[in-house]
Amino acid sequence: MTDIGRRTILAGMAAALGLPLIPLARAAEAASSEAHAPLWLSARGDAEGNYFATGFGPSGRFAFDLPLPTRGHSFAVHPQRPEAIAFGRRPGEFALVIDLDAGREIRTIPAAAGFHFNGHGTFTADGARLFATETEIASGEGIVGIYDPADGYRRVGFFRSNGLDPHDIRLLADGRTLVVANGGLLTHPDAPGIKLNVATMRPNLTYLDARDGTKVSVLRLPDEMHRLSIRHLAIGRNGVVAAALQYEGPSGDLMPLVCLHRPGAAALETVEVPDEVLRGMRNYCGSAAVDAEGRVLAVSSPRGGVGLFWDLEANRPVGTARLTDGCGIAAAGAPGTFLFSSGVGGIAEVRPEDGERHRLASAAADAARWDNHIVSVNV
Length: 379
What we know:
By secondary structure, this protein is mostly beta strands. The protein has helices spanning 3-17, 275-281, 363-367; strands spanning 39-45, 51-56, 62-68, 72-77, 83-88, 94-99, 104-110, 115-123, 130-136, 141-148, 154-164, 166-171, 177-182, 204-209, 215-219, 228-235, 241-247, 258-261, 269-270, 287-290, 296-301, 306-311, 316-322, 326-331, 338-342, 347-351, 356-359, 369-377. The chain has 2 domains: 1-37 and 230-379, Lipocalin, CATH 2.40.128.630; 69-220, 7 Propeller (Methylamine Dehydrogenase, Chain H). The protein has a 4-stranded antiparallel sheet with strand order 3-2-1-28. It has a 4-stranded antiparallel sheet with strand order 4-5-6-7, with no helix packed on it. It has a 4-stranded antiparallel sheet with strand order 8-9-10-11, with no helix packed on it.
């Protein structure tokens, strides 16, 4: 990175550190004014150890708050109907189908016998199929489960993800190509929290034909980076795929935590940031998103309490923002603007290019212990 780029990103961080959180004026909006407003989805917990799938509007006011049996993770939004799927956190045993208009549960999809959900999913462009990342428990192999929304979300098949630990999954703009983040880790529900193959893990980014699961291409980072687990994805407007990484090696190592794949490129491209920023991210990225224009990439590091923002087209840093235990991140509507949520409570609207940051003035949002992701609906 050039000295100019280095100064830009560090200046952005310094500005963010000193910036107060200012309640948004729209916090006093009536519920009726939010009936047709943008909606965001996130999983959350509360102080009593309960878990919920929550929808909220621009002020942070809850549109719905549905109980979950265990901790939730992320969501898939149906492209044609007002429905979304809330996935349980890996090893997930459920996926909850939500009526977004009524704010109610439609049904629960149980994990298939011998499999568990891995927290993410996506629909085909016409909404005729839901794809969910899963693991076959006995073998540890990565699976993409296929579900039929027209038949009560019945599981109608699966194909191999071409790796271990498939996590995030996205459908590209061509409507026929899936990209899967195979994290490379071997885990088992009988050994919760234990990663069984760190020394030999081989993560990859795999492209699959959504029609039949045929492998299109597989990309890996260099061998010396094999402990960088590929976890979360975001797709830019020109088809660039951004991946947020988590490093499973020694804590003192400094490794790139974001990589890009540009259409037609033969290899993954790492995003280089200053060592000071990498140390602050503590080898862990928690979520990735692009803004409403698909130009600015946002990557969060809850362990470091920092969000990193990158212009995908100019290939330069935009800035940083600070939020304690900040992980969930999503487009906020205006170009270059994001929502950023905290595991200890609160949601902030962040505009990194000019350093503005405002806290959504919602007591409910402040009290929530927000989980890893925010997903935008019609934003």
